[in-house]
Design brief:
This protein has 234 residues and is an alpha/beta fold. It has 8 helices and 14 strands. The strands form 4 sheets. A 5-stranded parallel beta sheet has the order 2-1-3-6-7, sandwiched between helices. Strands 8-9-10-11 form a 4-stranded antiparallel beta sheet, with helices on one face. The N and C termini lie far apart (41 Å).
Length: 234
């Protein structure tokens, strides 16, 4: 797999490139947004500093998330407030690492993000309820009607749909979508599930397609002919 390191500080850039090569990854490096844009071909992961000489890393992150086959992104930043971390994740980052950091920590995060990314390579389809998600194109539909989903909503639906009938706790969904050590609350998960349900229902999907299992979590129904209105709380 190829990893692109976008970092303007030479010492950090070279340290990360060295560690990645030792782990067996092919590595490209860039010191600016413009240089990064030229090196995105066949990249599986971007390690992205937010403060670059020619602009904000957020600009590149937003552009990547508009692509049908976007690489995973790990943000590097000296901004360590909860608001900054949440902003990075909500914008589309798969992980957020605060400077200073250890190369061993970064390598562990890289492996975790690439594992999650590799696990989502197959199209998930339900045989009874015509709901589909395609991670390659980041498109989802119900009964052939396209769903306009945010990054988090798509990942949430795809996660549950690939294991239809399995109950996911909020903690498991947070781990799958955001990873460990992030200021993501249970209520954040509830809000995304509520928005996802509304969009599925507006597109003609069965009201009870995304079920609440009281005291446990959420699942995509594995029952035929779902029509019961789902509960909003656990």
């Amino acid at each position: 797999m190829k990893v692109l390191v976008v970092e303007d500080e030479p010492a950090i850039r070279e340290s990360l490139a060295y560690s990645l090569k030792r782990e067996g990854y092919a590595v490209e490096v860039a010191a600016t947004l413009a240089e990064a844009e030229e090196k995105l071909t066949d990249v599986a992961l971007v390690i992205l500093d937010l403060m670059l000489p020619d602009g904000s890393g957020f600009d590149l992150l937003v552009g990547l998330r508009r692509r049908p086959r976007a690489p995973a992104v790990i943000v590097l930043s000296s901004r360590d407030s909860e608001a900054d971390r949440v902003a990075g994740l909500e914008t589309g980052a798969d992980d957020y690492i605060v400077k200073p950091f250890s190369p061993r920590e970064v390598m562990a995060r890289v492996r975790a993000v690439l594992r999650r990314s590799s696990a989502a390579t197959e199209v998930a389809t339900t045989p009874v309820i015509p709901l589909t998600t395609d991670p390659e194109t980041r498109r989802a539909s119900v009964s052939g009607v396209a769903l306009e989903l945010t990054r988090v909503e798509f990942d949430l639906l795809h996660c549950m749909l690939t294991a239809r009938g399995r109950v996911f706790t909020r903690a498991q969904l947070i781990e799958r979508l955001w990873g460990d050590n992030f200021a993501i609350t249970d209520r954040t998960v509830d809000s995304h599930v509520k928005a996802l349900r509304r969009k599925v229902a507006d597109a003609g999907g069965a009201p009870g397609l995304i079920e609440t299992v009281r005291g446990v979590g959420y699942r995509v129904s594995d029952s035929e002919g779902v029509s019961v209105e789902p509960s909003e709380g656990l």
